[in-house]
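Open question from group meeting: does this chain pack into something compact, or does most of it stay loose? Before anyone orders reagents, we agreed to write out a predicted structure and look at it together. Recording both the input and the output here so the notebook holds the full record.
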Amino acid sequence: MHDTAATWLMTSLTTSTLLVALMQTASSLPVLALALPAGALADIVDRRRVLIAAQSWMLGAATLMGLLALAGAMTPDRLLFFTFLLGLGNGLTAPAWQATLPELVRKDQLAAAVSLNGASMNIARAVGPAIGGLLVAAIGPGGVFLLNAASFAAVIGALVRWQNRPRETVLPAERVVGAIAAGWRYLRHAPQVQAPLIRCGLFVLFASAPWALLPALARYELGLGALGYGFLFGCLGLGALTGVAFLPRVQARLSTDSLVLGATLVYAAAVAALGLARAPVLAGAALFAVGIAWIAVMPAFNVAVQRASAAWVKARMLSMYVLAFMGAMAVGAALWGVVATRAGTAGALLVAAGGMLLNFAAALRWSLGPSDRLDMAPSGHWRDPVVAGDLHHDDGPVLVTVEYLVTPEDAAAFTRAMHDVGRFRRRDGAVSWGLFRDTAEPGRWLETFVVESWGEHLRQHARATMADLAIEAAARRYHRGEGLPAVSHFVHADTSVG
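Structure tokens returned:
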């Protein structure tokens, strides 16, 4: 309802297609600034407190928007500014909100939970615009903004009553800056997370066209009023709801990549049909298909990120997902606004439909399949290090060595297996990693990695997953010594002279 009122108000304040499209940019762009800190906060502090703070911020912004609109003091600049403020609240909310899902459902229910979470938003998309159109005509955009403010108060009340289980750890909490750096490090060494992020960004860049251009299409191309605009948005949301009803059966028959590519083809055809439509009914039918394809594609990217992320960094990886999604929406909205200014709304939609075919080339390089087979549950298989004397969490850097005995004929296969070991060592905290062979004893190999502090190395122990255990087991089967490979820990000695 709020989005309908805000975008429609902008079309009343200006005839600029670019300013109308920038409404989407103003709501999406703040995520580029807040997504990473928000993800870090959601991983290291109580997520409920983060959500309450964000909802309180949006309550204040929506209230001021409503008062300005009712006073007749709203301008295009002010409307974009307050939309930006609401976007900041959304940026703080999104990672924490999505990271709560694995706390609420079993692993085998995660895909359904993500789809239902999307369905809840699309129920709003189906019903909200229609009601919003009626309310804009009855009480004006300002009244709708104040209703939105009241909805934030209701969410705050629900969050206050929610008794979530606090995460228990004996280690000191990470600091926000360090947590952000750890998140980037994890992403850099986690190709299974990179794939859905890249695919999501590419898809949304072109898929954002109908979302950004729908107000202009409704008002300037189809000559519709607020109710007609609500009808078109309602068709999109209704399509998404229809997709949710059939999605579980389709997911059971198709691989993730096949589902995404099939839905992408449907989306591209529907966007092209929307660009060619000259009647509201035809535009509504095209948007219905857009909604079905949208709800098939977006949960697949979200679930792939969640399945490929360890629990300790899940909110940070979901913040990367939000960054890819909202960043592509912001850039796409501005891009299609510029294209529509030069080629018209219909021309921009046709260009976007053709560009979506690039997703088929991306699927060859970045498959979503590997994330389906990962078990990122904590394994706890690392043995506690032996410590003689006192060590503090800030002591370091720490050098860890692991000694292997490998026969010469297994050397090549062993080094290939250790490549994956090195990747997850870096992902979970190592600032450097290496594999060395003894020149005097060719069958003796030494794995080394350095961690910035003793506390960070202890976090490595807690971060190990079942997938990591399988990778280590694949490398250790080449070890021919008695028992497990010998592990040693060394703490940096201060050799400075005072």
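Observations to bring back to the group:
The two ends are 68 Å apart (CA to CA).
The CA atoms of residues 119 and 244 lie 7 Å apart.
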